[in-house]
Amino acid sequence: MSEPSDSVLRGITDDGAFRVITARTTQTVRGAVEAQGVAGHTARHFGDLLTGSILFRETMAPNMRVQGVLKGAGNSGSVIADSNPTGQTRGLIQLKAGAKEVELGQGAVLQLMRSLPSGRINQGIVEVPKDGGISHAFMAYMQTSEQVLSMLAVGTIFDGERVVSAGGYLVQLLPEVGRGPLMVMTERLRDFESIDPQLKDSAFNPAWLLGELLYGMPFTKLGESPVRFECWCDEVRVVSALASLGRGDLEHLLSTNEVLEIACEYCKRDFRIAPARLRGLLEQS
Ligand SMILES: [Zn+2]
User: How far is the CA of 37 from the centre of ligand 1 (A)?
Assistant: First the structure.
């Protein structure tokens, strides 16, 4: 049986109280984890950050690129998720020299950035709460940086080092919400604080999860969008990263007159760039 592709599904309760977004990100997270060759806690944080960034983008900025950065405790390194409105998603692990894992704990922060059409970047940062990990960090961010009350859970399930399921949900309380529906929803979501059981269920998909979260509440599905692991690197972008090298280093690269091999750090795709082409690209960048 072929695995269904990943998607994000939006819905709203008919009383106008809650907007709900559910996501299946299994292949997206698996692709990013395998491209970065990452395992252990770091891989789980990476998966959770990718799913959380997708849910955040769909909720707050569906037409913008959103980057989520988890800066680990004790200067252990960073985990980066990069989510495009096209559904293309990629990520990057930057471990500090000598560190084996990017760890949560005292000092870990979550930073979210969205690119505005003007080119400006809107960003904010929160500490990762002691309990609850990435899910609670996103909730704290929504509340403090966006003044949006939300409930969110993300999860990444592994079999050994292979991602077998990933996804999550975000329930946003709309301004019309009354006390009654809020209490019902708060009570309901106690059963979904961890969605690992749902991610392990063979029935898991965004529509099924939406139905589980809103069981017994009338709601309307608003739309579904695909998401996938796919990088948007190209020669110009890869070469422009070289522009950060000093002039001397660049001249040295050019002087060897050999074809330069550069890998994209997100997807590891190799680019082979002839010296003449490199010279041209550097002039453009
Ligand atoms: Zn790439």
Answer: 14
User: What is the predicted pLDDT for the residue at 222?
Assistant: 96
CA 123 to each of CA 66, 89, 159, 259: distance values in angstroms, whole numbers, following the listed order: 10, 19, 35, 39
CB atoms within 10 A of CB 267: 19
Give phi and psi for 261, each to the nearest 5: -105, 120
Domain segments of the chain as ranges: 7-229, 235-284
**pLDDT score recorded for residue 117:** 78
Residue 102 Cα, ligand 1 centroid: separation in angstroms?
22
DSSP bridge partners of 112: 68, 124
C-alpha span between 66 and 70 (Å, rounded): 13
- Gap from CA of 20 to ligand 1 centroid (Å): 31
Give the C-alpha separation, 277 to 283, whole Å.
10
Model's pTM, two decimal places? 0.92
User: 122 CA to middle of ligand 1, Å?
Assistant: 24
Residues whose Cβ atom is located within 5 A of ion ligand 1: 231, 233, 264, 266-267, 269
Strands 228-229 and 88-95, sheet pairing: parallel
* 155-183 residue pLDDT tens: 999 999 999 999 999 999 988 787 888 88
CA–centroid distance, 112 to ligand 1, in Å, is 21
Is the CATH number 2.40.33.20 carried by domain 235-284?
no
Q: What is the pLDDT of residues 60-97, one digit of tens each?
A: 999 999 999 999 998 899 999 999 999 999 999 999 98
> How far is the centre of ligand 1, averaged over its atoms, from the C-alpha of 156 (Å)?
23
Which CATH architecture best describes the domain 7-229?
3-Layer(bab) Sandwich (3.55)
Residue 113 CA to residue 124 CA, distance in Å, equals 7
